[in-house]
Design goal:
Number of domains: 2
Number of strands: 19
CATH topology of the largest domain: TIM Barrel
Strand content: 15-25%
CATH class of the largest domain: Alpha Beta
CATH architecture of the largest domain: Alpha-Beta Barrel
Structural class: alpha/beta
Distance between the termini: 8 Å
Number of helices: 11
């Protein structure tokens, strides 16, 4: 897992591009980035002359492994739609590393994904950040939990409206969230009092998680499309003081100045979809550019499998076509999602100390004709494109990988 990638057009993302640069990875971590990097003896050398070298892309909102490819009911573990408050649920416990989506991710240069429960519940559960290659979730783990998923709008009201139970309206969805957070406030106070008096206290898995949200430890990833639902998300965040991250934000451009002034990040997308429901009537590839120009910190998502995850970079490309700055586009699939989700100490850029997740591209990745040729995760080459075919290294067979 020691490798030097030399002579490439190195794009650190959070620094200036380096023509003829090199990236040195030692023990799975980036050790050096620059033009005059000394390559120790015994290190594997990859000549990237004429090619571009970038950090692995970061998908900030996907369902890899919990909504599996080609598995139907058997591989559908995205939503536990039997309890409107699923804060105790963990996406971690439902991920299948053998999901074909992980191989697709690598072919598109995506090396890290934040896996989230679906949007069927007002409070869906805990999210997790993983690498896109490995045998077990523990082996793939970057950080857990990363945030708590919540949903406003059509999805939860449809799910529970069909069951003839709360919540079946937008006011009901907001009430479920508000009630849960009020209970968490009370629980926190009672827990503190019991600790001060040295008394035993019955723990509650759901409320323990929500206390972490109230304490600012875990951000609140709010599924919301319509502008009025985004306003509700802001209202609830004001009431309870948690860290809000807008997910999807289809009509976020209508409130771009408000979001920018409040420093609320937006994970926008998916962008390659039809307007399949009322909430999506203003979906447009122009919207990322509007948000970015207003000063909103932006990440782009596929919401895999809604859009296949290897099309993440293509969404960025077409957003550039519709007005998004190219530099911001690259940041929106690398360092921005990493920072928004609190994993930028591990991934998202080419910087000494970060994980050795590096992708060698045939050219500018924003060029639709460019390909990911070699993908390294923690310094290990896990995907190779050659002779018209991409091959993912088998994570269950390590001898050939130097493990």
């Amino acid at each position: 897992m020691n490798v030097a990638i030399i002579n490439g057009q190195v794009v650190p993302v959070d620094g200036d591009p380096i023509d003829g640069g090199a990236v040195l990875i030692r023990d799975g971590k980036i050790a050096a980035v620059g033009r005059d990097v000394e390559v120790p003896s015994g290190v594997r050398v990859v000549d990237a002359a004429g090619r571009w070298v970038l950090p692995g892309f970061v998908e900030a909102h996907g369902h890899l492994g919990v909504h599996e490819e080609s598995e139907g009911w058997a591989g559908q573990d995205t939503n536990e739609m039997t309890d409107p408050n699923g804060a105790r649920l963990r996406a971690l416990d439902a991920i299948n590393p053998a999901d074909l989506g992980f191989a697709d991710a690598l072919s598109g240069g995506v090396t890290t994904a934040v896996i989230k429960p679906g949007s069927g519940n007002p409070i869906g559960g805990q999210t997790v950040a993983v690498k896109c290659w490995g045998r077990t979730v523990e082996e793939m783990l970057v950080r857990e939990p990363v945030s708590v998923k919540s949903a406003l709008g059509e999805n939860p009201k449809r799910v529970y409206g069909d069951q003839k139970k709360l919540p079946s309206t937008r006011q009901g969805v907001a009430a479920v969230i508000r009630d849960a957070l009020m209970k968490a406030q009370d629980y926190k106070a009672k827990r503190a009092a019991a600790a001060a008096e040295g008394k035993p206290f019955d723990r509650d898995g759901t409320l323990e998680v929500l206390v972490r949200v109230l304490d600012g430890e875990l951000p609140w990833c709010q599924h919301t499309h319509r502008a009025d639902d985004i306003a509700t998300a802001l209202r609830l965040a004001d009431e309870f003081g948690y860290r809000l991250v807008i997910n999807h934000g289809t009509e976020g451009h209508l409130l771009a100045d408000v979001l920018a002034a409040r420093n609320i990040p937006v994970i926008i997308g998916p962008l390659f979809t039809s307007r399949s429901k009322v909430e999506l009537r203003h979906r447009s590839l122009r919207n990322p550019g509007i948000l970015a120009r207003a000063g909103v910190q932006l990440a782009i998502t596929t919401d895999h499998p809604v859009v296949p995850i290897h099309f993440l970079v293509h969404q960025a490309t077409l957003a550039v076509k519709e007005g998004l700055d190219p530099e911001v586009a690259l940041r929106s699939i690398t360092v921005n999602p990493a920072r928004i989700m609190g994993i930028d100490d591990r991934v998202g850029a080419l910087r000494p100390g970060l994980d050795g997740d590096v992708v060698v591209w045939s050219g500018d990745p924003l060029d639709i004709m460019s390909r990911a040729l070699q993908v390294f995760v923690s310094g290990r080459e896990v995907y190779t494109y050659a002779d018209g075919e991409g091959v993912v290294a088998d994570p269950y067979y390590r001898e050939s990988q130097g493990a």
